[in-house]
Design goal:
The complex is a heterodimer of chains A (481) and B (97). With 481 residues, chain A is of the alpha+beta class. Chain A is 39% helix and 19% strand. Chain A folds into 3 domains: 287 residues, no CATH class; 116 residues, no CATH class; 59 residues, Arc Repressor Mutant, subunit A (Orthogonal Bundle), CATH 1.10.10. Classes of the chains: A alpha+beta (481), B mainly alpha (97).
Chain lengths: 481, 97
């Protein structure tokens, strides 16, 4: 049988670190990239006799996610202990939700060619992160940093609804955008604030039974997720072709070789002996609390895209504008301030977003110009005070270099104001015609495309101040005579 | 519940302990005693009794998200048998990187 006779089935478990100020069960600061063991307490270090207490904000962020995914919210939340030994887990158990997860069900749509695919969620539960172990710096020891121990996590578990490595990539990208949008996590995969496990199985097309699956653990980039899924599916298909059995197992993905390999965990090492954590009484979520969070929710990306399309913004432009919540906020304010929506969208897409990407780490909140300045800039063009191309090519960079300046004043002081001094334009046209006799001949013999060349020359001579339409009109007349 | 060698071996693995032969014999006795003690409960009919998980459900209001009670770094690592200059706890090398 050929590779195309097989179907790949993938479900993900995505861990999202919440951006609360403190940890999930104690008041240690929740932060990344600090010196080792600077944010710990007797609770995160598991000193005897200490008691955990749930962080309200972690619960609220769980509710926000449930609302965004269309999940049902369990209003009674309980916590369970999951037992295993590892040096970065001081209590020798992780507090998680085994039986009553905060969110159940829900789905999101991911782009798939011209249409969308719906990926369903099984559930999402709250849990605490473990500390961080470093195995390769000290020759004799493993080094343990417990700053991360107790960081709030949401583990988002999908149904086995993905069918290709590309879908896995697109799903992660969509989910990443969504959690950033609702402001619960920075979902930075490089820094580990979003990571995923991929459950992969294969079967012959048309089969309805699921075969044994393998779980590729702890993947920290969308690219690696694609590679891991593709490699793993290939490996399983090869085994099936050889008539071999696929063992259900946990795998490690090596990003350097692009291969998966067995972690050689004994299966009974996964006897986690879950039981309810008696130290943490149930947390009840009220209808009022849910309503309050619902009120604070932003319009979600896909709904915002629809709104843009209804405002006659092209779908591909709308797609670019909804990538980040900061972009949507900026765009909406600019659309309020400047009535010509196509000019505003054009400016966002051709200037603001590329500049932000190149010079401001893709973070629009650090973009130096205010919405009011951008609107004033657009108004200058709209009112014919400056030529569009001159504004984009000269005034805009000057504004960025002097972000406190008033666009109108700067336009004036740089001498960029549009000038339709027809005598001057006529003079410039005559000069350009005299300097380029060969081109004039060619034009007159029928090479009409050269008009652009002449317009460009005159524009340049006018220092970008003359209206190119007027120039073209006058040039056409002058060249005919 | 029968305490046999297979169960002792499983508990050894789960708790990362290695017991000597004499210790295994002793722990069998101890575990049987503990189970016998708990078995006393079997004398009562608990069919209609809800499992008691939480001794105290009073203090169930969640905590506000405010930084509090952090330990100074020196205090955090003071009891560590070994720590590094970088402030890490040091433990015997964990091989499964």
């Amino acid at each position: 049988m050929s590779k195309s006779d097989y179907e790949i089935i993938i479900g993900l478990e995505v861990h999202v670190q919440l951006n609360t100020k403190t940890k999930i069960f104690c008041g240690d600061q929740n932060s990344f990239g600090e010196l080792a063991n600077r944010h710990t307490s007797s609770i995160s270090l598991a000193h005897p006799g200490t008691l955990p207490r749930v962080n309200r904000e972690a619960i609220n962020k769980g509710i926000a996610l449930a609302l965004a995914l269309g999940s049902e919210i369990n209003q009674e939340n309980r916590f369970d202990r999951k037992h295993y030994f590892y040096p970065d887990l001081p209590k020798a158990y992780q507090i998680t939700q085994d039986r009553l997860p905060i969110c159940v069900g829900g789905s999101i749509d991911i782009p798939s060619g011209d249409t969308t695919r719906t990926i369903r969620f099984h559930h999402t539960h709250m849990e605490e992160d473990a500390g961080k172990s470093i195995h390769d710096l000290d020759p004799k020891n493993s080094m343990i940093d417990l700053n991360r121990a107790g960081t709030p996590l949401l583990e988002i578990v999908t149904e086995p609804d993905m069918r290709s490595a590309q879908e896995v990539h697109d799903f992660i990208a969509t989910l990443q955008q969504l959690v950033r949008y609702i402001g619960i996590s920075d979902a930075n995969m490089e820094e580990g604030s979003m990571r995923c496990d991929c459950n992969v199985s294969v079967r012959l097309k048309g089969d309805t039974q699921l075969n044994n699956r393998c779980e590729v653990k702890n993947i920290n980039s969308k690219k690696f997720a694609m590679q891991a899924v593709a490699y793993e599916a290939q490996r399983q298909i090869k085994l099936m072709e050889q008539g071999e059995h696929i063992d259900q197992q946990t795998l490690h993905f090596d990003s350097e070789t692009g291969r998966t390999s067995s972690t050689r965990d004994k299966e009974d090492a996964h006897d986690y002996r879950y039981f309810p954590d008696p130290d943490l009484p149930p947390v009840y979520i009220t209808d009022e609390e849910i309503a309050q969070i619902k009120e604070q929710m932003p319009i979600l990306p896909q709904a915002q895209k629809q709104l843009y399309i209804e405002q006659d913004i092209k779908a591909e432009h709308a797609e670019l504008l909804i990538q980040e919540r900061a972009t949507v906020t900026f765009t909406n304010e600019l659309l309020q301030a400047h009535q010509d929506s196509s000019a505003a969208v054009n400016f966002m897409i051709n200037k603001v977003l590329p500049t932000t990407k190149e010079d401001y780490h893709d973070d629009l909140t650090t973009f130096p110009l205010t919405v009011a300045q951008c609107a004033a800039f657009l108004k200058l063009i709209d009112a014919g005070k400056i030529i569009h191309s001159t504004a984009y090519q000269q005034l805009y960079p000057a504004l960025l270099a002097d972000p406190t300046a008033d666009p109108a004043a700067l336009c004036e002081s740089m001498g960029l104001s549009q000038s339709n001094d027809t005598d001057l334009i006529d003079d410039l046209i005559q000069a350009v015609i005299q300097e380029n006799p060969d081109e004039v001949k060619k034009y007159q013999k029928g090479k009409k495309g050269l008009i652009g060349f002449f317009v460009g020359k005159v524009m340049k001579e006018s220092k970008g101040k003359a209206d190119p339409k007027l120039i073209q009109q006058k040039l056409t007349e002058a060249l005919q005579s | 519940m029968k305490i046999d060698d297979a169960l002792i071996s499983k508990l050894e693995r789960l708790s990362r302990l290695e017991l000597a032969v004499e210790e295994r014999a002793q722990i069998k006795v101890d575990l049987n005693n503990i189970l016998q003690m708990v078995d006393t409960l079997e004398e009562l009919n608990t069919d209609d009794v809800e499992p008691l998980i939480y001794m105290n459900e009073e203090h169930k209001a969640p905590r506000e998200d405010i930084i509090s009670n952090e330990l100074p770094h020196e205090a955090a690592i003071a009891n560590a048998p070994v720590s590094s200059e970088s402030g890490h706890f040091l433990v015997p090398k964990v091989m499964d990187k």
